[in-house]
């Protein structure tokens, strides 16, 4: 549609571009978009902020600086404080960001927290609830299996993001 990836095609002429449109499509299709409109709105809110944050991190990769300066310039720590508080509002942070089951917001947050760990392996130490959430999500059977592959371990984006 826009001449770039990601791009999803499927049955009945399905063509969707843009990662968050694809994510929301699968969220609705696989019942990962909350149990009601209020939960869906909270998921949307988290996705919007996660997207802003990850975009800032990616943009920072084009500026020559070390990772501590990158972390400071993107204000990621301020955002992690907010995300931790939001997680703790739901079941004291012992489950998911919204509701009582995993949602697309949780997968997006896992992606963001992976990016944070790529910038600093100890970044989540200051956010114990987020770190516990990350460990729970990363230990899910299929996610853990994916992370154990050589393809995943050698994945490299720009700068050093993606290096473990």
Question: What does it look like?
Answer:
The protein is 58% helix and 4% strand. By secondary structure, the protein is mostly helical. The protein has a two-stranded antiparallel ribbon with strand order 1-2. Helix 5 crosses helix 6. It is globular and about 50 Å long. Residues 1-34 form the GST N-terminal domain.
Topology:
Blueprint: E1 7-9, E2 15-17, H1 19-29, H2 37-60, H3 67-74, H4 76-89, H5 104-119, H6 128-138, H7 141-147, H8 150-153
Antiparallel strand pairs: 1-2
Domain GST N-terminal: 1-34
GO biological process, one term: glutathione metabolic process
GO molecular function: glutathione transferase activity
Order of helices and strands: EEHHHHHHHH
Continuous helix count:
8
Binned, the helix content reads 55-70%
> Beta-strand level of the residues, as a percent range?
under 5%
How many β strands by DSSP? 2
How many strands, which pairing sense, and closed or not: the largest β-sheet? Answer: 2 strands, antiparallel
What is the rounded Rg? 16 Å
Shape: globular
Low-confidence stretches: 158-164
| Mean of residue pLDDT values | 88
- Secondary-structure-based class equals mainly alpha
Q: Kindly report the spatial arrangement of strands forming the biggest sheet.
A: 1-2
Beginning-to-end CA distance, first to last residue: 34 Å
Protein name: Glutathione transferase
Organism: Owenia fusiformis (Polychaete worm)
InterPro entries: Glutathione-S-Trfase_C-like, Glutathione-S-Trfase_C_sf, Glutathione_S-Trfase, Glutathione_S-Trfase_N, GST_C, GST_superfamily
GO molecular function: glutathione transferase activity
């Amino acid at each position: 549609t826009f001449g770039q990836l990601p791009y999803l095609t499927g049955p009945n002429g399905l063509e969707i571009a843009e990662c968050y449109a694809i994510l929301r499509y699968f969220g609705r299709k696989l019942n990962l978009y909350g149990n009601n409109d209020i939960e869906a709105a909270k998921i949307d809110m988290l996705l919007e902020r996660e997207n802003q944050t990850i975009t800032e991190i990616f943009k920072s990769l084009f500026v020559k600086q070390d990772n501590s300066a990158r972390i400071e310039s993107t204000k990621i720590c301020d955002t992690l404080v907010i995300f931790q508080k939001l997680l703790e509002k739901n079941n004291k942070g012992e489950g998911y960001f919204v509701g009582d089951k995993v949602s697309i917001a949780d997968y997006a947050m896992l992606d963001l927290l992976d990016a944070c760990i790529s910038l600093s392996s100890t970044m989540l130490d200051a956010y114990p609830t987020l770190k516990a959430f990350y460990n729970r999500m990363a230990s899910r059977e299929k996610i853990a299996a994916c992370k154990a592959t050589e393809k995943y371990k050698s994945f490299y984006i720009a700068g050093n993001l993606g290096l473990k």
